[in-house]
Amino acid sequence: MDRLINELADRYREAWLTSHRIPAGIRLGYTAFWPEMNYDKREQIRRAEREVLSIRVTPEDVDRMLECSRWLMELVEEDRKLIWLRASGLTWRDIAEHTGIPRTSVHRYWHRALLRIVINQGQRQQI
């Protein structure tokens, strides 16, 4: 069962990364009147470290992300939020501060939420 939970956690991490790689592509026609910035070498290196890899998203990646999103719809909002926060790479301590759940309980609640998804998928496959 722990193997299934770990695989599911990896799927949600992949879904989170995919959701952040999808280009917005929406241009509303607004213009910025700020001057163009000329960064020095040190600032360019820092900006490059912060940028997410711009690997193209494949349709299969999007399908897997949407499948994970559908699974989340079966859970209550608190569980959805907990799974998505952990998929974003936050530590348990940061998640506890963000949600207000005691730090010692965050992992247990996250595990329980993923277990619900595994059980729901298992019941659906039996039908």
TrEMBL record:
Pfam families: DUF6362. Coiled coil: none annotated. Gene3D superfamilies: Winged helix-like DNA-binding domain superfamily/Winged helix DNA-binding domain. InterPro entries: DUF6362 (IPR045942), RNA_pol_sigma_r3/r4-like (IPR013324), WH-like_DNA-bd_sf (IPR036388). Residues 20-117 form the DUF6362 domain. SUPFAM superfamilies: Sigma3 and sigma4 domains of RNA polymerase sigma factors (SSF88659). This is DUF6362 domain-containing protein.
